[in-house]
Amino acid sequence: MSDTVNATAGGQTPRSASGAGAAPETRGRTTIADSVVEKIAGMATREVSGIHRLGSGMARTFGAVADKVPGGRSSVSRGVEVEVGERQAAIDLDVVVEYGVSIVGIAGDVRTSVITAVERMTGLEVVEVNIAVDDVHLPDEGDDQESAGRVQ
Hints:
The longest helix is centred in the C-terminal third of the chain and has 20 residues, at 103-122. The chain is α+β, with helices and mostly antiparallel strands. It has helices at residues 34-46, 57-68, 103-122; strands at 51-54, 80-84, 88-98, 125-137. Helix 1 packs across helix 3 (103-122). The chain has a single domain (9-137), classed as Alpha-Beta Plaits, CATH 3.30.70.1350. It is built from three helices and four strands; from the N terminus they run H-E-H-E-E-H-E. Helix 3 (103-122) links the parallel strand 3 (88-98) and strand 4 (125-137).
């Protein structure tokens, strides 16, 4: 995985001219950290109706601990993994959906939302968005049921 990426607005190739004669958008290099793409993808996923939360049960458990550690992974990017190259990105998502939604339909909506947001904000081409549906949230389930043991 790359830590940074060279990206230009709209995926355009920079001109070779430099200095005062060059277009302002080509003077210099822009780098985008993987964590930025993770956050964009996480926010775009959460905006889709029918997504209950991101992250598998284990990722949420570890994430709750990481949230308390300075410099720990942001809850916005929990359940999001990215691979970023110079011009392209691939994104993997772990999600929990609300009971009753069409999983196929919501997967299409998530892909559209994530691809649109990442491409618009970074200029990277998103080559794939892989979605793992780890659970279905039932209306009568509390969010903390997963962490409760069988005995008290």
